[in-house]
Every structure is written in C-alpha cells, then in structure tokens.
Amino acid sequence: MMNTKTTTIAVYAGLISVIIGSATFALSWNLYDILGGPMPGTKVLLFPGSLTLIYVWHPLFTEEISFWPKFALQMFGQFFVVTAVIMLFVGLAKKLFRITQKQ
Predict the structure, then answer these.
(1) CA distances (Å), origin 72, targets 1, 18, 31, 33, 100
(2) Mean pLDDT per 10-residue interval, the chain, length 103 residues
(3) Amino acid 103: pLDDT
(4) Is the four-CA dihedral 61, 45, 43, 40 of positive or negative sign?
(5) What pTM, to 2 d.p., does this model score?
(6) CA distances from residue 77 to 14, 49, 50 in whole angstroms, order as listed
(7) Domain boundaries, the chain
(8) 98 φ, ψ to 5°?
(9) Predicted pLDDT at 72
(10) Shortest CA distance to 78 belongs to which of 36, 26, 20?
(11) Do residues 43 and 50 lie in contact, with contact meaning Cβ atoms separated by under 8 Å?
(12) Cβ neighbours for 15, distance < 8 A, ≥ 6 positions apart
C-alpha cells in the first residue's frame, strides 16, 4: 500500500483542515454583509471545530471569552478531530489491506 506512517498522514490532514478552516472562516467573516449571512458550506467545513467548541470547550469556559481565544480553540479542535479520524481510517485501511494480501 504505502510506506508512510499513519501519524504523518493524519497530522498533514489535520494541518490542511486548519488551513482550509481558517480561510473559510476568514472569507465568511469578511463576506457576511455582502452575502447577507454566512458563506455557504462554512458549517460543513468547520464542523469538527464546532463540535469541540460546543461539547468540549463550552462546558469548561463561559461564552464570554474574546474572539481570538475562541478562534484558537476552534482551530485546535479542528486539528484534533480531523487528525484522530484520519488516523483511525488510515490505520483501518492498512489493516484491511494486510488482511487481503495474506489471502
């Protein structure tokens, strides 16, 4: 299959998701008035970060934290969730590939 480590693939995917999430958030933030609302697809692309904001960080902190710490928490969540999911899927794919090669 491939000789790349599972963690390397997962970390790169996490970093790419943070870059895409930051760009999406910035575009949606700056185009809010022009579009009359959030940019289409923003909720989908920022879903992993939003999950951590709602279910991890919100119970620990109050809603009244300023913008930049909240943005940093969302991007950390984006990185963590995407990295964990990709690590799981790549690990499973490698195991399935090994099983099919033995038969």
Answers:
(1) 36, 10, 21, 24, 42
(2) 81 97 93 90 93 86 81 94 96 91 80
(3) 72
(4) positive
(5) 0.85
(6) 10, 5, 8
(7) 7-102
(8) -65, -40
(9) 93
(10) 20
(11) yes
(12) 79
How far does Cα 32 stand from its chain's mean position?
Answer: 22
Tokens of 83: 């990295």
Give the model's pLDDT for residue 7.
92
Question: Roughly what angle, to the nearest 10 degrees, separates helices 6-30 and 67-102?
Answer: 140
The CA distance from 76 to 69, in Å, is 10
Q: What CA–CA distance (Å, rounded) separates 32 from 19?
A: 20
pLDDT of residue 90: 94
pLDDT of residue 101: 87
